[in-house]
User: Which sequence fits this backbone?
């Protein structure tokens, strides 16, 4: 198949493909769509950014046009994926394809209104796009019926297994009819994924496009060895050298993501951030602003970035080293998509040389070492408006005069003891605001490698309500302003 017009599709679907510029299929689409349209099970592996979503969405939409008696208001297809962002991106693709038809969609993911999701399902959604955790929750409460599902898609199966979703996947697949079409898409086929294939896929057509264990050929891999306190200056230098390109920057931790984004803003760059502790609204807004160019920098963690499918990302920066070689592939796969070229730069310290070599050995690639400019100076920082936190109001034990007059008729007779309105303190310090002191925040000490176990202690202790990075009289941690990672307080 060299053109979508060669397929025998409904007129509505053909029109939608043309309207949105889908004319020539990518290799994974050309090899996957014909067997999927015929109802065959499918196992496809391809690099990130090769068009896998359309490869399964098109056959499912065409199936919906062939209405089955009594199944119009039932869920007929389920798409499972690892993250909310990816679910929403898949929903966007389906929305383009079903325009002008009677087909309906529903999304079931955490962090969004459960009522709206259930309402969409009950109104007759035929395609359900879900994360395994939320769908399992609906099944456990008997809020969704999957008895008429004809096809199921496991998208990015390797990542779902990495995130511990295997029990949830088994639970969901057991609820589906035995006679169904199963399509599995994955960047890699490891032992865990192979077991899933053996257990739930029957006589599948196998599609493999390119090497899935190495970055794409269109990505130039660069490495900068520098101290942690010079990373921000190097990132600012790269941004100045490419003043118009979109940058996707990876940090290792949620707190590091926040700090790096704020430091970039202080340096005069427009940066948004995305990680698991942000609300879904905040994540959607950050992704939308990155897509439309309002912010040309998006700072992200690995898990949150799994659903980021944005065209024309010029540069991926590993501000912090990835945890694994597989994460490295998925990070750099966000650039150089659909035949375009891109650059992936990795910042590493002298102590991380062995980690770099391990990535090169496992992936059979070479990261070209680039020289850090002499006299590299940190960017000029400016202050940002304070983020206003809503504090709980401190209530006085004495009501205002108006309330005293209103409550006067309910006062106890003289001589009776009224309970104090001051909250009891558990600390014994006489304070009504809880225990005093504390460490401010906690962090694991010692060095750690992204490819091995940390040499730190147990890390036990309760996290303080004090914002990360703040200090307190009792000790705690502070952050190097040029690094996304916490450092031990001296």
Assistant:
């Amino acid at each position: 198949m060299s053109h979508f017009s060669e397929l025998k599709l409904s007129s509505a679907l053909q029109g939608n493909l043309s309207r949105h510029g889908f004319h020539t299929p990518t290799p994974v689409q050309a090899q996957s769509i014909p067997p999927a349209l015929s109802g065959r099970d499918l196992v496809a592996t391809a690099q990130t950014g090769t068009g896998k979503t359309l490869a399964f969405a098109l056959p499912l939409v065409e199936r919906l046009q062939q209405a089955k008696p009594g199944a119009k208001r039932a869920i007929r297809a389920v798409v499972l994926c690892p993250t909310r962002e990816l679910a929403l991106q898949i929903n966007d693709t389906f929305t383009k394809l079903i325009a002008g038809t009677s087909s309906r969609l529903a999304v079931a993911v955490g962090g969004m209104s459960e009522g709206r999701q259930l309402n969409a399902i009950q109104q007759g959604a035929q395609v359900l796009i879900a994360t395994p955790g939320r769908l399992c929750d609906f099944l456990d409460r008997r809020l969704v019926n999957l008895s008429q599902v004809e096809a199921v898609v496991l998208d990015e199966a390797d990542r779902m297994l990495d995130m511990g979703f295997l029990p949830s996947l088994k639970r969901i697949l057991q609820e589906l009819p035995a006679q169904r079409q199963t399509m599995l898409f994955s960047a890699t086929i490891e032992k865990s994924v192979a077991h899933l294939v053996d257990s739930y896929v029957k006589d599948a057509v196998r599609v493999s496009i390119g090497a899935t264990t190495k970055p794409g050929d269109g990505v130039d891999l660069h490495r900068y060895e520098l101290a942690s306190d010079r990373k921000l200056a190097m990132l600012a230098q790269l941004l100045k050298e490419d003043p118009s390109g979109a940058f996707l920057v990876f940090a290792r931790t949620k707190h590091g993501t926040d700090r790096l984004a704020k430091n970039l803003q202080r340096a005069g760059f427009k940066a948004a951030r995305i990680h698991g502790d942000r609300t879904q609204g905040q994540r959607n807004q950050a992704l939308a602003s990155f897509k439309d160019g309002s912010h040309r920098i998006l700072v992200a963690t690995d898990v949150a970035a799994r659903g980021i499918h944005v065209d024309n990302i010029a540069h991926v920066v590993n501000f912090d080293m990835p945890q694994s070689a597989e994460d490295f592939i998925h990070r750099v796969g966000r650039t150089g998509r659909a035949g375009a070229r891109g650059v992936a730069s990795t910042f590493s310290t002298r102590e991380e040389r062995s980690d770099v070599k391990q990535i090169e050995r496992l992936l059979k690639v070479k990261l070209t070492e680039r020289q850090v400019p002499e006299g590299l100076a940190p960017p000029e920082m400016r202050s940002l408006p304070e983020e206003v936190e809503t504090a709980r109001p401190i209530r006085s034990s004495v009501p205002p005069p108006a309330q005293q007059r209103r409550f006067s008729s309910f006062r106890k007779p003289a001589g009776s003891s009224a309970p104090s309105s001051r909250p009891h303190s558990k600390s014994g310090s006489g304070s009504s605001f809880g225990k005093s002191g504390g460490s401010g925040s906690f962090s694991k000490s010692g060095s750690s490698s992204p490819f091995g176990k940390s040499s730190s202690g147990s890390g036990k202790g309760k996290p303080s309500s004090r914002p990360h990075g703040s200090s307190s009289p009792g000790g705690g941690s502070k952050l190097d302003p040029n690094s996304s990672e916490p450092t031990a307080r001296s």
User: Anything to note?
Assistant: The mean pLDDT is 79. The CA atoms of residues 225 and 353 lie 8 Å apart. The radius of gyration is 27 Å. The chain has 16 helices and 17 strands.
